[in-house]
Each structure stands twice: as C-alpha cells, then as structure tokens.
Design goal:
There is one protein chain. The chain is of the alpha/beta class. It has three domains: 131 residues, HUPs (Rossmann fold); 144 residues, Serine Threonine Protein Phosphatase 5, Tetratricopeptide repeat; 176 residues, DNA Cyclobutane Dipyrimidine Photolyase, subunit A, domain 3 (Orthogonal Bundle). It is 46% helix and 6% strand. It has 23 helices and nine strands. The chain has a five-stranded parallel beta sheet, sandwiched between helices. A hairpin with a 3-residue loop joins strand 8 and strand 9. Helix 3 packs across helix 8, helix 7 crosses helix 13 and helix 9 runs parallel beside helix 12. The longest helix is centred in the middle third of the chain and has 25 residues.
C-alpha cells in the first residue's frame, strides 16, 4: 500500500470487497462532478502524482506544482467529507511513477468490482484506461465531463452536416443555447447590442503612452504549507524541470479560484475587450483574466465565470464589448477547440500540413536571445508559466510557424510550459491555430485549416504595431535584409516564399501572396539565403534532427 498521507483513510478488508475504484485525475478537481456525487460508502477515490506526467512532455515546474498542490487540497477536502481516498504522493517510496502501474497496484490491493472515472482530457490517458480494463478484466465506466456545455457527441452531430467548421457559427448556437447576452427567447432571440461579436473593435494597440489606466496585477496566492511541500518534493524527484519555482502564486483551491475570478471581474474585465490583442513590456497579464488554469483544473466552472461577467455588465461595471469577448472565449472558442480535439481523434497530433520539420530553437527553454519580443515572451513563460493568447499566437507561435519548426515540437512545448496546459485545449490551439498543420480541402474556399482558416503569420511590423517590444531592440522590424534586419520579418517573407504553392490554394491568402509575386527574383533569393543562415544559426535546421 502507498504510504499513508494526510489524504488517505484506512479501511478494513471487509469494507474494500467489491467496492468501486473511482479515479480522479489532476484536471478533474470538481467537487460537484458526477463521479463525486455518486460515490458509495465503500468506494475509494484514487489520486496519483506520477513523474511520467511531467516527463512525457517536459513540464514547467510551476505547472507540475499547480497540478499536484491543487490535487492535494482537493483530496484533503474529500477526506474532510469522509470519502475514502487512496493518494499516492510524488515522493512515495512505492510510487511506480506511471498511471497504469498505479491503477494496477490499487486494483490489486482493493479488488474493486469496477473502475470508474470522468472522461479524461487526453486521448493518451483514455487509451491507457482501456489497456487497464483489458489487462485486468475489471469493468470500466467512463462518465461524461459535465464541466463543459457541449459533449463530444453533440459537437460531432453539429459538425456532421457542415462543409467547414466555423467557430463563429458554433458560438452563435452556444449563445442561443445558454441565453447569454441575448435579447428575447426562442426563435426571436437576438444578440444583445445588435451584433454577435465585437472582435473588430477589440484589436486596439496602446500607442506610445502604453496601457492607461495601468492594469492592476492579478491577485497573488502565496504558497501555503501544502504547496511548499509539493515544491520540495518536485525538487527531490524532478529537479531537472524547466522554469522558475520561486514566483509561484497560482490559485490551488476552489476558494482561491473564486477569489481570482472576483479579482478579474472587479479590476480588469472592463478594459479586457478593446486591448485583448495588445502587448506591453513588463505587463505580463495586462487586462487578461489568468483564469485558464483554474478552469482547466475544474476549480472554476465556465458557466459561473460567464454569469459573473454578465452580472458586471448588467450592473454597469463592464461594457458589453469586453463581456462579450470574455464570454466568447469560454462558450465559443474553448468549447469549439475541445469539440475539434475529440472529433478528429488521436491521429490529429501527427498532422503536419505544411510539411515543416525544424527543431524548436534552444532559446524557447532559456530566453537567451537578442530578439526583444521573444526574450520578453519566452522569459515571461519561464518565470511564471503564463502568456496571454496574443503572445502565444503572434509572438512565440508566429516565430515557430514562420521559421519552419515541426508542429509536434511546438504543441509539446505549449502543453508542458504553460500552467494551463491540458492536451484537449493545447493541441488544437498549437497544432491547428498556431502552426496551421491541420490543413484540408473544403468546398468553396480551397485548402484551409480546420481550426484556423489561414496561417496567422506576421512580420515584425505587426509586433511593432501591437506592442512596445521593438523599442530599443537591435533589429528593425521594417528591414528584411542587412545586419539590422528583424529575424521575424526575414522569416516571415521566407515562409511566404517557401509555402507559396501550398498557400495559393487558400483563398484568404490571395492578397498577401501578391506581395510575394511583386518581389524581384533577386530579392526572393536574398531572403531565402538569409533565412537559411538564420535557421542554422538558431539551431532550427540541423542535420541530426532525426525526423
């Protein structure tokens, strides 16, 4: 048996006979979930801290610490509710370090009549559960994840009759379904404010003066005794994990997550919409919510987040423009991405629609680069495990796309290095939206991506317009050749040249590609040469990459 911890409760042999073994994974910390509501008096909850989950993709220290600390707090609450908990800590001497082996060990000890769990957030974990069922001959019941508004089956039914999967249309159905920000009911219901979204108005840069008013930083949650114990265990068992540990300040309990929600709605929601695509040095969060980790661990429910924001709008404390943008991220994009993940199946992770095979540059692990934008955004990830969506898409993601990195290397980095990383959300965002690797032919629009209809590629001029990163940088975002040429700009033009024939099949790229066609042959050749030298210098193109 695993060492008894503060979360474990002993039981007599008679109590364990033919009881169920209920597995709760680290991203399923919902006390109102069906698996918790339906526990019987003799059932045991199994929770496991296993080292392989921080190594199958290299995990940021704070991501690992957040999962484990939140799990320990959750287990402690279950124990207070008189639930039987078998909890395996990371530094338990008998810990095998893998889910599959720990489930087998628990089943051998408890001899359950059935294994039950909530649908996991990853195809890999689902396959593992099926192997356990088949090898041990114990029935397995997988309960639906009630945290989400749309089940995979409902999304598949919605997608079945559509030539293309357009998030905007899905989002409108979600609005009608929930009634959020709608005027009237039934077939006569209309979007509040007369439009479905305010995306076009929500792309403002700050200008030279910077954000005004200055955003209030998110509430910090100093590590308690449980979190400190987790960090110490990680230091002993997983000392080689990347990222800083000292700055850990994430919510690890339901109460802290609710406080973080209140902090966002009170202090940042009002300014969120107009400036959600803007960036600024030394302002890592700006007006963003930073709630994604609490949502993905299930410490928060998307319904309560939407309703709290809408209540602020009704009270006159936040404009419709900002509240709609926040609601759209939760019931539109978040649900859409999960639907795509389960619809496309486990082979989705292997797609490489633009046939890119480069290595991830070493500075993604160190922030050791003279590109100011990458230094700021990667450095922020290493320090806190966080980056807001435009930093992910248009800085770290854009650079990986235009420099030709293999999409799986990128999606693995996003999964491991951000505290909110869970496969169902990370993979479609990184592989589909960032890397445009899920291209497919569609009727009427040529070849587009499944998640993103076109590649979100940009030169240094975009970064200059939306941030102050370029101020004082040694590179000039307007230059694509010469010693002061911005690497982002060089690689952007090289990307368009390299993928010219592939992207020509995408109608949304027609205007952009005309700019390539206007280049002289000499200019195209120079860009190609400069980009090849740059990729080699950065370690992207290597002869020993093994792909």
């Amino acid at each position: 048996m695993p060492r008894e911890s503060a979360f474990s409760s002993k039981r007599s042999p008679s109590q364990t006979t033919r009881a169920r073994l209920a597995i709760v994974f680290g991203d399923q910390l919902d006390l109102d979930a069906a698996i918790i509501r339906t526990l019987g008096p003799n059932d045991t909850v199994l929770m496991m801290e296993v080292a392989t989950e921080s190594r199958h993709v290299l995990s940021h220290t704070q991501r690992t610490a957040l999962f484990l600390s939140a799990m320990r707090h959750f287990a402690a609450e279950l124990t207070r509710r008189k639930v039987h908990v078998r909890y395996v800590t990371l530094d338990d001497a008998e810990n095998t370090g893998a889910f599959e082996a720990e489930i087998a060990r628990a089943a051998a000890a408890l001899k359950p009549s059935e294994i039950v769990c909530t649908q996991p957030g990853e195809w890999r974990v689902l396959a593992m559960l099926h192997r356990v069922r088949d090898s041990m001959g114990i029935p397995l019941s997988i309960l639906p994840d009630e945290h989400f508004l749309t089940s995979p089956e409902e999304f598949a039914a919605w997608a079945q009759c559509r030539k293309t999967l357009t998030m905007e249309f899905f989002y409108r159905e979600q609005r009608r379904k929930t009634g959020y920000l709608m005027e009237g009911t039934g077939k006569n219901a209309k979007a509040e404010g007369g439009v479905w979204n305010f995306d076009k108005e929500n792309r403002l840069p700050f200008g030279k003066q910077g954000p005004s008013p200055r955003p209030r930083p998110p509430q910090k949650f100093n590590p308690d005794e449980t979190t400190r114990a987790v960090l110490a265990a990680i230091g002993r068992v997983l000392p080689d994990l990347p990222g800083a540990a000292d700055s850990f300040a994430w919510p690890v309990t339901r109460e802290e997550a609710l406080a973080a929600l209140d902090d966002f709605v009170t202090h940042r929601l009002a300014q969120f919409g107009p400036f959600e695509d803007a960036m600024w040095t030394s302002e890592p969060t700006l007006y963003h919510s930073t709630l994604s980790s609490s949502l993905n661990l299930k410490l928060l429910n998307p319904r309560e987040c939407c309703e709290r924001a809408i209540a602020a709008y009704r009270a006159g404390n936040a404009p419709l423009q900002s509240v709609e943008a926040f609601v759209r991220q939760l019931i539109g994009w978040r649900e859409f991405i999960r639907g795509v993940y389960w619809l496309e199946g486990p082979t989705y992770a292997d797609r490489n629609g633009l046939d890119q095979h480069g290595e991830l540059p070493p500075f993604y692990w160190t922030a050791d680069t003279d590109m100011a934008c990458m230094k700021a955004c990667v450095g922020q990830v290493l320090e806190t495990g966080f980056g807001h969506h435009i930093q992910r898409l248009m800085v770290t993601g854009n650079f990986a796309l235009i420099s030709g990195v293999h999409p799986r290397a990128v999606s693995d980095w996003y999964l491991g290095m951000f505290v909110d990383g869970v496969d169902w959300v990370t993979l479609p965002n990184a592989l589909g939206m960032v890397m445009h690797a899920d291209r497919r032919k569609t009727a009427g629009t040529g070849v587009t991506g499944l998640v993103g209809t076109k590649p979100y590629a940009a030169s240094g001029k975009y970064i200059e317009r939306m941030s102050n990163y370029c101020t004082g940088c040694r590179y000039d975002p307007a230059e694509r050749s010469g010693p002061s040429a911005c690497p982002v700009t060089v690689l952007y033009w090289d990307f368009l040249i390299r993928t010219r024939e592939q992207l020509a099949q995408n109608q949304r790229m027609a205007m952009i590609l005309k700019n390539v066609d206007r280049m002289t042959p000499q200019a195209r050749t120079q860009v190609t040469i400069d980009a090849a030298l740059l990729r080699k210098k950065l370690g992207i193109d290597r002869d020993d990459r093994g792909r």
